[in-house]
Amino acid sequence: MANVVSEGTTARGTRTSRLTRAELALATLAAGLPAPERTHSVLEQALVFTGAAFAGLYTPGGDALCLADAAGVPRTLYGLRDTYSLTGPSPPADAHRTGRPVWLGPEELAAGADSRRMPAGDVSLAALPLTGGTGGCLLVVTERPG
């Protein structure tokens, strides 16, 4: 039987496959933001592709990354802020500054400075940088293990 799985994919439910699916949704975001409805639709797709509970788009505004749109559960359930300093230590700011994805599992989140804001348990967070245009990042939170 032919291998119908595309090259570079991994087993369903792994951190790598979820990050890859989130990056696919991010590629759609990075292609342009023609309308708020399109942005919200892509965030909803990110929820579906990643199995996440929250997906938010943060864009630069002055000296901070500001929440431009979100889908899923309220961000406050995970202690997420509506703004993050561009120069401060946070997953969204780190992803934006470095241009590289940031993935934090439950252990890394528990050890972080904002751990008191996050619920205990099997919560993971991915911050994916937007390239081109003004930049920003996609922030995704999931309670799925792995």
Write the layout of secondary structure elements.
Blueprint (H helix, E strand, L loop, with lengths): L14 H16 L5 H15 L3 E8 L2 E9 L10 E3 L5 H8 L3 E3 L1 H6 L12 E6 L7 E6 L4
Antiparallel strand pairs: 1-2, 1-6, 2-3, 4-5, 5-6
Textual characterization of the structure:
The protein has 146 residues and is α+β, with helices and mostly antiparallel strands. The protein has a single domain (15-142), classed as Beta-Lactamase (2-Layer Sandwich), CATH 3.30.450.40. The protein is 31% helix and 24% strand. The chain has helices at 15-30, 36-50, 91-98, 106-111, and strands spanning 54-61, 64-72, 83-85, 102-104, 124-129, 137-142. A six-stranded antiparallel β-sheet has the order 3-2-1-6-5-4, sandwiched between helices. A hairpin with a 2-residue loop joins strand 1 (54-61) and strand 2 (64-72). Helix 1 (15-30) runs antiparallel to helix 2 (36-50). It is globular, with a radius of gyration of 15 Å. The model is unreliable at 1-13 (pLDDT under 50).
